[in-house]
Automatic annotation (TrEMBL):
<dbReference type="GO" id="GO:0005739">
    <property type="term" value="C:mitochondrion"/>
</dbReference>
<protein>
    <submittedName>
        <fullName>Glutamine amidotransferase class 1 domain containing 3</fullName>
    </submittedName>
</protein>
<dbReference type="InterPro" id="IPR029062">
    <property type="entry name" value="Class_I_gatase-like"/>
</dbReference>
Length: 203
């Protein structure tokens, strides 16, 4: 019975402790020590809504599958203004309206959103960027500048830090967040299709 109570208290602390509170180090230690098979991942969001922010279906699907795999997933977003606001019922930009990427991303994260400027790569095992036009409009200037786009400074820092640490970086159809001026990996924009036999599928 004692072990059950202790385990329950630990899980409550892990679940409800703010990662930036004075108990954050205790939280991380307990997660690593007790839930030794738990991975720490994060999603970087770009707003809320496919046409001017994060593709909500992708963000939710990523969260579901990572959680089922035993991962602890936090949500981050830059504290910046959106490029513009799109009326999703018409697919057209809204007149004289502005929104904040962090504030809008909090809708997907149920309020538990963290400013990307506070992210430290050492605290996580991998990072995932869900799709949506927000990646091209808010996380970068791809929608305007194409292959010559610039990447948000905090997004660029995160990409470089995770790449330097040899940690996985996941992108959902938003390859332009890692252009040559960020990681030195992509030298042209385009696709090459290779037809291969499917031998298995893993999610």
């Amino acid at each position: 019975m004692r072990d059950f109570i202790v385990d329950a208290m630990i899980r409550i602390l892990i679940k409800y402790c703010d990662p930036f509170s004075k108990f954050s180090k205790v939280r991380r230690y307990l997660e690593k020590a007790i839930l030794f098979d738990l991975y720490f991942l994060l999603q970087v969001l770009s707003g809320c809504g496919v046409y001017d922010g994060t593709e909500i279906h992708e963000a939710a699907a990523i969260m579901v599958h990572l959680s089922r795999g035993g991962a602890n997933v936090d949500m981050y977003a830059p504290n910046i203004s959106q490029m513009h606001v799109v009326d999703h019922s018409r697919g057209q930009p809204a007149d004289r309206e502005s929104r904040n990427v962090l504030t809008e991303s909090a809708r997907i994260a149920r309020g538990k959103i963290i400013d990307l400027a506070r992210l430290a790569a050492r605290d996580y095992d991998a990072v995932v960027f869900p799709g949506g036009f927000g990646a091209a409009k808010n996380l970068s200037t791809f929608s305007v500048d194409g292959k010559d786009c610039k990447v948000n400074k905090d997004v660029e820092r995160v990409l470089k830090d995770f790449h330097k640490s040899g940690k996985p970086i996941g992108h959902c159809l938003i390859f332009f967040l890692a252009p040559k001026n960020t990681l030195g990996l992509i030298f042209r924009v385009g696709l090459i299709y290779l037809w291969c036999q499917i031998v298995g599928v893993s999610v």
